Amino acid sequence: MNTFNFNAPFSSDALHLLQLFKNEGYQIFLVGGCVRDAILGNVIHDYDLCTDALPKQMIALANKYNIQSIPTGIAHGTITWMYHNQPYEITTFRSDHEYKDFRRPEHVSFSNNFADDVARRDFTMNALGYDGAHIVDYVGGMHDIKHKQIRTVGNPSLRFQEDALRILRALRFQATLAFSIENETFLAIQKYAYLLQHISKERLQVEFVKILQSKQVDTLRILRNANVLDTLFPVFKETYDVVQHNTYHIYDVFEHMNSVINASIGYPLDIRLALFFHDIKKKACKQVDANGITHFKGHAALSATYAKKILKEYRFSKACYQHVYQLIYYHDRYVTNGIDDIRQFMYELHGNYVLAHEILTIQKLDNMGKSKTTQIKKNVTIDEVIKKLHIMQEAKEVFSIKELAVNGEDIKKLGYQHKEIGNVLNYLVKYVVHHQEKNNKKDLLEVAGGLKDEISNSK
């Protein structure tokens, strides 16, 4: 065991709880991520503690000091104290036994020795304790933090077979902390990545989102090299080594997608999710013409459908997967800078300017994974489209029925009935899209009046 003096930036409440347990004769340590983040100088978001006090003793102690206690994991020795509206998870020192579901121990043994508790933890950087004055280190965690290295506590093969989620957590820490993974640990990740299929989709989603929201470069490559990409999203196998012989592309499908994810670092989650999956079904749509040029017609719609299925499977919200579906579906719908084409684009989007700008953002980022000539040419056009969209939005151009200068009652007075009314209104919207100046009651009623024969014949 090594100890290090440390002037910890912990909250006064956290330090007060340490002292409260000590005053009662218990051992107590701040542990896990809060200690690691304190050493790194990162923001501390939550506090975990461990102690030799048993759960019933923790509850009694909370009652003595009028602190709310919640038995959040009492079978595994965890009691949550609510102190000044901040949760503190406090767990009895323990050893874990017989992991049967690749996630949680079948049973635990409580201990009065902090070293036993350290031995069950995932990574050395998360196995440090702070006793109020010193960092207590049994496993070389301080060394690994100093060298920005992720290493399991003990045998990595055993750690990952006990709890397979640790595999994705290692990759998440690599992404969010900009650490490297120690070689034996990484080899075990590659070997046991398949065990992630036993973990709930909700837990996998949480870790995956944190990886995707990080500033890590080459995320797709890293996940692929770790054998994790194929386990989480087997469809990506269809993107490997799919050559794109045309004037736009300089990479195969997978490398193109990796470069696009790099270009999107820092963008909102839905944008990054859309780009993560935007070309996953290109291979299924691949065609080669007589000149040897490859085309992928229909890949946007097919990729959008498949991405939506994946996001639903991983328990993303309905709003999220529907939004991502739209972004992918339209990512290959390039618009010229001609006003009629831009208006038609806005009509297809039902006048949703926010969605239009997001799609154009997706397209600009998608172009960053193509040839330099394509990047420049296409993105100049997109910038021109964006300027015209601002002008159209300020002019309050019309792209939906609710924005027309007439309504159903106006059309009914012309003698139309039932479904005819809706048909006329739909026609008027299409008309106004390309004749914005005609969106007034007089002109629209005149146009509507002239549709009677066409509407009648359509029956």
UniProtKB/TrEMBL annotation:
Domain CCA-adding enzyme C-terminal, residue spans: 301-448
Example GO molecular function: tRNA binding
Superkingdom as given in the UniProt entry: Bacteria
Cross-referenced InterPro entries: Bact_CCA-adding_enz_type3_sf, CCA-adding_enz_C, NT_sf, PolA_pol_head_dom, PolyA_RNA-bd
Keywords: Magnesium, Metal-binding, Nucleotide-binding, Nucleotidyltransferase, RNA-binding, Transferase, tRNA processing
Residue span(s) of domain tRNA nucleotidyltransferase/poly(A) polymerase RNA and SrmB- binding: 179-237
Domain Poly A polymerase head: 28-151
Any GO BP: tRNA processing
Entry keyword annotation includes Amino-acid biosynthesis: no
Required co-factors: Mg(2+)
Family: Belongs to the tRNA nucleotidyltransferase/poly(A) polymerase family.
Protein name from the UniProt record: tRNA nucleotidyltransferase (CCA-adding enzyme)
